[in-house]
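User: I'm curious whether this sequence folds into something compact or stays loose and floppy. Could you predict its structure so I can see for myself?
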Amino acid sequence: MNAFIIGNGFDLAHDLPTSYSDFHSYIFERFPNLNTHYMYVPTTVIGHHGETVVSEEDTASLLCYLLNDVCGDDWKDFENALGKIDLFERFNDLERVYDRDGDRNLWHEAYNNEDRTTDLSCAIPMIKVFFSDWIKSIQPANKKIKGFSEIIDSENDLFITFNYTHTLEELYGCKKVVHMHGEVGKEIIIGHNGTKDYTEENPSTPIGYYNSLQDIYDGLRKNTDEVIRRHYDEIKSIADCEKIYSYGFSYSNVDIPYIKMICESIKSSNVSWLFNAYDCNRIDYYKETVSKNGFCGKFSKYTV
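Assistant: Here's the prediction. I'll summarize afterward.
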């Protein structure tokens, strides 16, 4: 049995629009009247069944404003940007309130802050809903890569994929596929790997709302420990594999826990780790990353 680590470069090689810049384009196609030139926090209302409702278009405008501010309008650094959104600044437009005697009405200001926090708590997590809707809108790939078909055993090889599409299953008939970050039609996992603590970083934030802002921030974090726990037994099945092929995987910092677990699950001295020759400019970095996390076998390249 061999194992394959599959990243987004695999779907891109099948001409699927799965880059973060494609997600950015999807948002603007879905909401053509977005206004991203100023920060407007949409107000929540109570729906007919008592649920909290927020305008999707206004929410998309806010999210695009926030993300563009962090990573530009190509969204190449989309997931990291989720951890860099400045939630503190979202309170700057709230004016001070004074009573009839000219003294600040801190109670009234606290209510305004609470309302703003509620609005942010409803709006910002909607990025996950939009992302999931985008994944569902992507049409399946329809043309195989011949070289890839020739090196896989679709019945017995294990495919550890960080993609959400079913390209492996539908196009290549792969039976043992582990979707680490979810899959189309099911829960989708996206997020940053930051560790910000709102109770320490900005004492000027309205007192009493640290926890709410922390909840928003934590809700956008990718819980890699939980992902590993969920797929632990499946990944451990690669213990006796002879080769690990990497295709379109970026080996970024947020992926390090997965690489470490894979290295711990194999007898690496007996394993060859193969990189796609297409990634020739980054293979040295990939080798260094894998070696630092416990791999002591051989490296090689392959071409498809």
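Summary: The chain is about 40% helix and 10% strand. The radius of gyration is 23 Å.
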